[in-house]
Specification:
Distance between the termini: 83 Å
Structural class: mainly alpha
Number of domains: 2
Shape: elongated
Helix content: over 70%
Largest sheet: none
Number of strands: 0
Number of helices: 4
Length: 119
């Protein structure tokens, strides 16, 4: 990997991490959700600074072509992020269902109390 590409990639990744810090600072992103994004940023920085780690890992896994291994790693990280987001969406869906049920019960109770007051 040539020096220009390494510096460019490192700059882009540092910009990526600074955007995550900005979103945390402005409270548009919670820390528990940002940890996965930080993990990917730190991993990318480590791989830019030490590209031989990636080559060693690809050799260990049996990849013949570097780009195939890189593609596999990218797909893995994308799947990891999708899994985390799906988990978050599932929890929010559960909380939303419980909230709707609670509101419906409270509305029913209010209607019953209003009917009792009229009688």
């Amino acid at each position: 990997m040539n020096l220009f590409f390494s510096i460019l990639a490192l700059t882009v990744i540092l910009l990526y991490v600074s955007v995550i810090f900005y979103l945390l600072h402005t409270k548009k992103l919670y820390l528990k959700y940002a940890l996965l994004w930080f993990l990917t940023g730190v991993t990318m920085i480590a791989l830019i600074l030490f590209p031989q780690l990636l080559q060693w890992f690809f050799t260990l896994c049996g990849f013949q072509v570097f780009s195939n291994g890189l593609f596999a790693v990218l797909v893995f990280f994308i799947l990891l992020i999708l899994l985390a987001l799906t988990s978050i969406a599932s929890r929010l869906n559960d909380a939303n269902r419980k909230l709707i049920q609670t509101v419906a019960l409270l509305e029913k109770r209010i209607r019953e109390l209003e009917e009792n007051l009229r009688d």
